[in-house]
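Convert to structure. Protein one:
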Amino acid sequence: MSINAQSSGDSAVGSKYLEDQFYVGLNYNFLLNKPDNVTQSNLSYGLQGGIIKDIPINARRNIAFGIGLGYSVNSYFTNLQVTETTDGFQYRVLESGTSFKRSKIETHAIEMPIEFRWRNSTADSYKFWRVYTGVKLGYVVGSRSKFVSMDEKFSFYNTDTVNFQYGIMINLGYNTFNVHAYYALNEFFESGTQTVDNSNIDFTPLRIGIIFYIL
């Protein structure tokens, strides 16, 4: 969605217009490189939003850089049960047929997208194609593990997640509909995180969804 408040009759504005300075998005979170028998369940969703400084680099102003600051919440539902012990955190893969309502880990992060932007827009064009690609840096400010079954329910802060996260991304589409994809270049958990049967947990997030830009 691109909402444009510029006047086509204002030549001064037309020569200095900017595009897509706010964004909101919804995505599904995939976990790659899962240990054997770890599966995703329920809806592993993510929400993101923020502001971007649009910096055109040509006279037509259809090629630009974008540097932003935003916030994201991402949840991952799996059959991996996390419990808190006096020695740290314990990870156990729940066997098939085990009854539980949900087992998830949720992260909250401050993010900085850095984009190279191409679009075929003009100062008075409200519908245009865009391809924005680049990197996204993130810092996790809070991670929480939660488990709910018929017999028990517990939740706690999980410090095993990697705080500084980074990956490559692409946002492309036309007018309202824009596809967003993000692939993490580092792992979700700290190196050495293992299940109780000594399987490494090398989760790598892949997020695919939709994103809306607002002027």
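Protein two, convert as well:
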Amino acid sequence: MLTDPMPAEAVETAHKQVRLAAEDLDGSRVATLVLEFADVWGVPALWEQVCRPLLVQLSGRTAAEIAVERALCEGVRVGLDVYRREPGRSLPTGGVLLAGAEKEAHSLGLHALAAALRERGRGCLHLGPALPWSAFTSAVHRAVPHTVVLWSQTPVTGRAYRLVRFARDFPLLRVYGAGPGWIEPLAAPARRLGTLSAAVEVCLDGTRSR
């Protein structure tokens, strides 16, 4: 597996192959391609240069576009979820908790982060999308993580004041907002993550500092 950015030719090829598979509504083929490209280029490069741009390009305005978008999303999710998993062997979470913001239905970015952490030999506690704030608080009390990452896809769910208040309620917890939904500035102690690579490093850094 390489860790450098994908060259332009490889990106173009990946875009074409993944998009064609999605247009054929072949989610299994999309998942296979995700696994193949991740093995060569690594999850961060695949996500930032292939998956995310393709997802942005599909506006979902027509019935046909919605179907293609769903096939792409499902294929990417499945590919990321099985990447570097070993049946019967769970990786240590290292005190990292991932979740989608309350009422947030999208969480592909968290699947990418979980896959990228497994790529580095580290697991996480991934609680999926649309986690109510009360459940998020309960999970922190039970799991006692050192780092939490909350994903928001749209400004409707990216409530900056809620995340900042949450971070202040847990002063020993490192709290991050990820995804395009956090359009308002995040005041300290909460912080925003702009890239998958940055998210991986802060999660690993917290593990190393324990």
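The first helix runs from residue 8 to 23. The mean pLDDT is 92.
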